[in-house]
Specification:
The chain is mainly α and 109 residues long. It has helices spanning 4-34, 37-40, 43-63, 74-86. Helix 1 (4-34) runs antiparallel to helix 3 (43-63).
């Protein structure tokens, strides 16, 4: 019997590899558009790299199809979790300077 947590963890690993393949192809496209690929590779070598990157991305997409809801970078997930934890409760009114009484005034002892 498969545990849902294990399945999510496995998907997370596959999704991260797919995202890495996307970044790799994006980097190669950027190199091509800027013309910098000529500084590092011959034309045949660069074409081979692009073909390999496309094949890898296709393979990872078959294993973990893109899903906007479940596939967010770890930084976004951490930021959203922190945001949820730091939000004040809507049922508690925030304190203002007017709410501080004499018991909070250190000048009166």
């Amino acid at each position: 019997m498969t545990n849902s947590g294990n399945a999510d963890q496995g998907r997370s690993v596959v999704v991260r590899w797919r995202m890495l393949a996307e970044r790799r192809l994006s980097h190669l496209v950027e190199l091509y558009e800027s013309g910098r690929w000529k500084l590092y590779h011959s034309e045949a070598e660069f074409l081979g790299l692009v073909k390999d990157a496309r094949a890898a991305l296709k393979a990872w997409e078959m294993l973990a199809p893109p899903d906007d809801v479940r596939d967010k970078p770890a930084e976004v997930a951490v930021a959203q979790q922190a945001e949820r934890m730091t939000l004040a409760s809507p049922f508690v009114a925030p304190l203002s300077a007017d709410d501080v009484g004499a018991e909070g005034d250190l000048r009166k002892s």
